[in-house]
Design a protein that fits this description.
399 residues, alpha+beta, Aminoglycoside 3'-phosphotransferase, Chain: A, domain 2, two-stranded antiparallel sheet, 41% helix, Kinase-like_dom_sf, CHK_kinase-like
Length: 399
């Protein structure tokens, strides 16, 4: 798959990030820009970085007679690079390709079409900015991308993005759980993604799963299920040896049924980030107060019910206090933000999705959230917060 720039070569190494190449990339969105110098800072990585090398660089030049400087990153992937955190997927080159195609498709195809889903009336209303300092019609949840392309024949891909670090964004250190305020910002970002994608689907009349063939489809064989879900449960039992009954309940979850069954579900589906947890969320702060959010690493980009993203977020990013004490307020904020992205005169689909329906779906989909957390157990160690969340979910009758 290749998109956004069929005549622009995909760099195979840091040495290929040169002034002429950067100029061609930027001229797509910045006509007339001339790049005279590129200062490559080297590899950076806030997250796990097991699939891609993220290279920061500054480009200097001129545009319209004025000096310009652009702080950028090139996210470069070689599909043959093994997944260091999962031996089960080490040789799954096709799996790597699918993940890359999803992220390339998001930046090169989906983002422009989501922007087009905003109506002229919505744009008119956007003259007044919201409290976060963003126009409602802006895609505030995603970084600006200048080039997204993949070449399966050469087994490489690239995304050239604005450098969020230089704008004051950062990932929380040491995988600290998100605060209530950080969760509010994050679910607001998900609400915009979900709402606009649903508007796009209503406008085109075509399910987005058919429109976008690059969306990730989660299918697992029995061996992968054991490797990625059943085995980490041993760590839960080791951490909480007195919870044998609870672990037994977790062992009975049919992971394959949960992941594959959703594809056949008649529920309304939207575009999901698919991997929205601590490592893939960047915040900007004013003092200690989070003011803006960006979602990164879109390789898990898929088409699921909206509460799948929310369940994953809560189980993999919140602590017990936020989950237990602030969950309803966070879900209510998500619901309000979701409806603010919808066409008010269209009663179909998510426009008629009530808060009570949302809460019920969230509770049911926490099973998916548990699966997502267990599969990250090597990174997110079993702790008391996780145990308390699972115990409450059990009380709902989900387990």
């Amino acid at each position: 798959m290749e998109a956004q720039g069929k005549v622009i070569a995909i760099p195979k190494s840091i040495e290929d990030i040169a002034p002429y190449w950067v100029q061609k990339v930027l001229q797509r969105d910045l006509p007339g820009v001339t790049i005279s110098d590129v200062d490559v800072k080297g590899s950076i990585c806030d997250g796990e970085g097991f699939m891609s090398e993220i290279v920061a660089f500054d480009a200097r030049g001129t545009r319209d007679g004025k000096s310009q400087r652009y702080n950028l990153v090139a996210k470069m992937t070689k599909f043959t690079r093994p997944l260091a955190t999962s031996n089960a997927l080490e040789d799954d080159i096709q799996g790597h390709l699918n993940l890359e195609r999803a992220e390339v498709g998001l930046y090169s195809v989906v983002v422009p079409e989501l922007l087009s889903a905003t109506t002229e009336s919505s744009k008119k209303k956007a003259q007044d900015k919201d409290e976060g300092g963003h126009h409602p019609t802006d895609l505030f949840f995603v970084a600006k991308c200048y080039l997204a392309a993949a070449d399966p024949s050469s087994m490489v891909s690239v995304r050239v993005l604005e450098n969020l670090k230089t704008q004051g964004f950062s990932i929380k250190p040491d995988r600290q759980a998100l605060s209530c305020d950080e969760m509010m910002l994050t679910v607001g970002a998900l609400a915009q993604l979900h709402g606009l994608s649903h508007r796009l689907e209503l406008r085109t009349g075509v399910p987005l799963s058919e429109k976008y063939d690059f969306l990730v489809k989660y299918t697992m064989n029995a061996d992968q299920t054991v490797a990625l879900y059943q085995n980490p449960l041993k760590e839960v039992l080791a951490a909480f040896p007195d919870q044998t009954d609870l672990v037994a309940r977790l062992e009975k979850i049919d992971v394959q049924s949960v992941l594959v069954g959703v594809l056949k579900s008649p529920r309304v589906k939207v575009l999901n980030h698919g991997d929205c947890w601590i490592n893939n969320i960047m915040f900007k702060y004013k003092g200690d107060v989070p003011t803006e959010v960006k979602l990164v690493d879109w390789q898990g980009f898929t088409y699921f019910p909206p509460t799948y993203d929310l369940a994953l977020l809560f189980l993999c990013s919140a602590d017990w206090d936020v989950f237990h004490m602030h969950r309803d307020a966070i879900l209510a904020h998500y619901h309000q933000q979701l409806h603010s992205t919808m066409e008010q005169n269209d009663p179909s689909g998510l426009q008629s999705y009530t808060l009570e329906q949302l809460k019920a779906d969230f509770r049911a989909d926490c099973l998916y959230g548990i699966i997502s957390r267990v599969m990250r157990m090597a990174i997110l160690r079993p702790d008391l917060d996780f145990l308390q969340m699972v115990q409450e979910i059990k009380e709902w009758g989900v387990l």
